[in-house]
Amino acid sequence: MSQSVVPFDPYAGTSVRALPNNCLRLARFLAKVRLTLWVRDRWLGLWWWLLQPMAMCATYVFMVRYAFPPGRPYHALFIMCALLPWTCFIAATGQAGAAFVGNKNLLKSFRFNYLALPLAEVIAATVRFVCSLIVLAILMAYYKVAPTAHLLWIPLLVAVQFVFTLGVCYFLAISQVFIQDTPNAWQVVSRIWFYASPSLYALDTIMEKIPADYRFVYLINPFATLFDSYRRIIIDGQRPDLLMLGYVVLLGSVILMAAMFLVRRLHGVLPMHV
Amino acid sequence: MIHLKDVGVRCRRIAQRERNFNRLLKRKARRLRNVFSKQHAESNRSECWAIRNVSFDIGQGESVGIVGTNGAGKSTLLRVIGGIYRPTAGSVIVNGKITPLLALQHGFNAELTGLENLRMAGILLGLEHEQLESLIPGIIEFTELENFIEQPIRTYSSGMLARLGFAVSTAVVPDVLILDEVMSVGDGAFRERCKERLTTLIDDARILLLCSHNMNYLKEQCERVIWMNRGQVVRDGATDEVLEEYQEFLSQGGNRAARRELKKAG
Predict the structure, then answer these.
(1) Which one of A46, A98, B171, B189 is least enclosed by Cβ atoms within 10 Å?
(2) Which of B79, B93, B123 sits opposite A9 (nearest CB)?
(3) Rounded to 10 degrees, what is the CA torsion of A267, A269, A273, B4?
(4) What does the alpha-carbon distance between residue B152 and residue B115 come to, in Å, rounded to a whole number?
(5) Orientation of helix A116-143 relative to helix A154-178, angle to 10°
(6) Mean pLDDT, to the nearest integer, of B94-121?
(7) Cα–Cα distance for residue pair A145/A139, rounded to 1 Å
(8) In what order do the strands lie in the sheet with B176-180?
(9) Is A110 on the interface with B (CB under 8 A)?
(10) Which residues contact A253 (CB under 8 A, 6 or more apart)?
């Protein structure tokens, strides 16, 4: 029974400094809870994590093979390299965007670091994503793409994506507290974002069509780099573009820092508004 | 020690919620019409304060009750003291570890089992892992829910939930114990044990803040009562005096009667 004396006033005590230092533990616990709730009482349980990406893969392969002119080789693998990270991003932003609004009771009855709530959702989505990478392995085996040592870059890519996703999620979660339209707007934005990223087409093909002076505009989108890196690593067995990856890391950390700062500032204010 | 000075909490204006695109269009249209007739659309920008200008001190070992009608700002005040809300104005100083027990069972996740909810509440209350694990058997024993602890709590009755909530938040001895309407549920036997547990907590020279509509319970537990109405402190004094006045206010019809009289007077 610790008897810590916590000074408390509007500017020091309610601040994050006086909070119990349990943010990461809480996030880990909540992520575990989220993951167990996904599989608990489901007849297929964990298999859903494989079935869902497989079904999605089948749909897109069908679309690309029959609805579009004949594409490049390995197109199932090619598309899944982009679709799986994107699904993770969408799942994370959907779940974590509602993290504050959906955990009203938690926010109103406990004193804790709000950063933990969206973090938990993003962790859960990422764990699911990592599990769904098995689908990529299956496809690699199917197309007889030989694994190379460059596959070791994948954890780095996942980490980069995690940082970027987390930052975006914090902003979405805060925005949803104050503006109820956020999920609606996000649906539109994310749909546009998906087609603006090299998801169903290759980065090289789009780059050829854009004048050289304006290519950087397209590359602002971190998913342009991420999708391309996944493809380079998995299909071509090449090193990702480290310079562009560095830019994504920088962008992600700037967004994350800003979001964390904002959440800290809003400590004690968010529960009033959710 | 709790020290509150001129504390105010401003809530979101109701007008803001009504601010949407359709209304904006209507307003613009009306304004366009009014340009010719030179009328100005009246703006109803009213501020809404959940609590306003609340100041009091609570010393070591005091147990204080808070009464007031629904929506008087009791829960908001307790949340401010518990460090959940940051006051818009004024300053709050609370020395000591606070456990806000604001109807804790609402913080539980219905899909999780009782045990998982206990763990979650423990982490949220800032317990260390070992500390929590050593406390859990005691908590389960206190709630007498051994047979149900592995069931998801959506299968629990409200009484069982209240037991769980009470047990987990009184498992650690806080310096400031905040109870918001927690004693209203549970059967007789359990309530007796809750009282026992609370008495031991209060005896440890710690502060108890109790918010309840149960006058008898307040009379038993508190030596001082703060009566709040419309976000402000009306009376602050010895339990019997304040409760007497409060009961008189209630029997006269509360705020509605007061408003009627105000209207009559003009």
Answers:
(1) B189
(2) B93
(3) 130
(4) 9
(5) 140
(6) 77
(7) 9
(8) B98-101, B176-180, B207-211, B63-67, B224-229, B232-238
(9) yes
(10) A163, A167
What residues in A contact B97, CB-CB < 8 Å? 2-6
Tell me if A132 sits within 8 A of A84, measured CB to CB: yes
* pLDDT tens sequence across A44-98: 888 888 888 889 888 877 777 776 666 566 778 888 889 999 999 999 999 999 9
One-letter amino acid for residue B1 of the chain: M
Residues of A whose CB is below 8 A from B172: 1
A5 with B95: Cβ contact below 8 A: yes
Measured between alpha carbons, how far is B12 from B139 in angstroms, rounded to an integer?
A: 39
CB atoms within 10 A of CB A17: 12
CB A145, CB A234: distance < 8 Å: yes
Cβ neighbors of B252 (< 8 A, separation 6 or more) are none
pTM of the model: 0.85
ipTM of predicted complex: 0.81
Q: Are A111 and B173 within 8 A, CB to CB?
A: no
pLDDT digit string, tens, across residues B195-204: 787 777 777 6
pLDDT at residue A17 greater than cutoff 60 = no
Domains in chain B: how many in total? 1
**Structural domain range at position B249:** 2-9+46-97+174-265
**Which positions ≥6 away from B21 have C-beta within 8 Å?**
none
Q: Does A17 touch chain B (CB under 8 A)?
A: no
Identify all chain A residues contacting B103, using CB atoms and an 8 Å cutoff. Answer: 109
Residue A2 scores a pLDDT above 50: no
Residue recorded with tokens 């763990």? B119
Terminal Cα-to-Cα distance of chain A (whole angstroms): 32
Q: Assign B55 to helix, strand or coil.
A: strand
Angle at B198 between CA B196 and CA B203, to 5 degrees: 95
Task: Report the relative pairing of strands B63-67 and B48-58 from DSSP bridges.
Answer: unpaired
Rounded (10°) CA dihedral B78, A119, A172, A13: 30
CA-wise closest residue to A232 among A274, A266, A186, A198: A198
CB contact under 8 Å between B104 and A109, yes or no, is yes
Amino acid type, B123: I
The larger pLDDT score, comparing residue A171 to residue A179, is at: A171
In DSSP notation, A210-243 reads S-GGGHHHHHTSHHHHHHHHHHIIIII-----HH
Question: Residue type at B114?
Answer: G
> Contact B67/B242 with Cβ under 8 angstroms?
yes
What CATH number corresponds to the domain at position B248? Answer: 3.40.50.300
Q: Is residue B147 part of a domain?
A: no
Tell whether the torsion through CA atoms of B119, B125, B131 and B134 is positive or negative. negative
